[in-house]
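Dear Dr. H.,

I hope your travels went smoothly. While you were away I took the liberty of generating a structure for the chain from your last submission, since the lab meeting agenda had it listed for discussion. I wanted you to have the full record in hand beforehand rather than looking at slides cold. The sequence, exactly as received, is reproduced here:
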Amino acid sequence: MLTPDDRRGLPLSWLSRVANVSRVTLVLCFVGALLTQAMDATSVRAADSERPNVILILADDLGYGDLACQGAADIQTPHLDQLFAQGLTLERFYANCCVCSPTRASVMSGCYPDRVGVPGVIRTRAENSWGYFQLQRETLPSVLADAGYKTAAIGKWHLGLEPENHPLSRGFESFHGFLGDMMDDYYNHRRHGINYMRSDRDEIDPPGHATDLFSQWAVEFIEQQRDGQRPWMMYLAYNAPHTPIQPPEDWKQKVLKRQPGIDPQRAALVALIEHMDAGIGRVLAALDQTEQTQDTLVIFTSDNGGQLSVGANNGKLRGGKGMMYEGGLRVPCCIRWPGRSRAGTRTQRLASTVDLLPTICKAAGLAAPEDLDGQSLLPLLENENANWPQREIYFVRREGGNQFGGLTIQAVRQGSWKLLQNTPYEPMQLFDLENDPLEQNDLSGKQRKRFNELSARLRLHVQNGGKVPWQK
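The corresponding predicted structure, in token form, is as follows:
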């Protein structure tokens, strides 16, 4: 570089040429920077194009046997039947609790719910609320959003009313749905007379059945993504078929006409599930119509088993919602990823809700947060009989009322063995599910070594959960 002293005495023509060269250099550098930026943007878009879109659909209280493809003879669920047929069915998939909020915390965190502050149901009334979703935990939508995904939550949230636990505060860019727990009415969307329906953080009061609204909002979101500029993730959480069992009347009449003599209570539940299936069909059709099906990973499951008192079908499993028996915990689940999953495959490998976050992160090529309890299910997409670790799966529920008094019930499954306590006031029971899938023969007195080993592991898990505050 020429100093001012060097420049003195040089011909003006030479200095002019130097200045011109400098200007050319600057222009070339600027153009190079633009090209580099464009190449970087192109590479980002290329990377984005290799990342799947994600739809995670969560039903509410859907029984293990309450789909036609799961063996129900009195129900027609063609859209979910097709989804299951096109991908991998996980026949031994467990919700991480027998009630709503804890399982949803596992979906969001990839951790056992009591380890993230949600050992029981988060309710709209503080005196009967049994959890506070841990703020320092990274969530599935926050991980994806940080990597460039567009993230949307549609439907039931049920992880807290506090501003800091609003979906928009936990990684979602948009929220269209119900902030609270259950609805007292599918048409007016109230709970204890309070409207919890939201568009982002704004209260809204749209007319219509909640299932129709959630399905329509999901379709609209998919249609808005047809330009493909960013990969996206949609969490679609239906209230159906949770109580009140309130299907549209025409759907109920269709079931009654098709099946004369069906129990009226069962007919209403069947209609509510079939109505949800039709909504899911609209969502999947929107993928087809916008040519996004091949680029989208779809996962479907339920937050817990079906409620027996309203006529749910949990197949041959014992018990239902709210119980630590198989009917309260084992739920339908399928994964469809075009080009990766193989149609009609089924696996017997044990898996649970905590596995969904690491599965989706792995599919997106992202590192999952540390200290998770789940693991990626992608090896099972490639080989449904893939080697699978013999890990334990834990279940804890804390609850109020006279039945529980703020105490917990719990269970652990390891291989074919399951140890459970179904109420706080009864002894633990031990079952060999390989030889006793209906949990009829308690072996706690005969298999004391196994009983002691599993009860020690379960106590340690309960202690770990006790380290995490579950009240604000």
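Two observations you may find useful: Residues 1-46 have pLDDT under 50 and may be disordered. The domain at 394-466 is CATH 3.30.1120.10 (Arylsulfatase, C-terminal domain).

With kind regards,
E. W.
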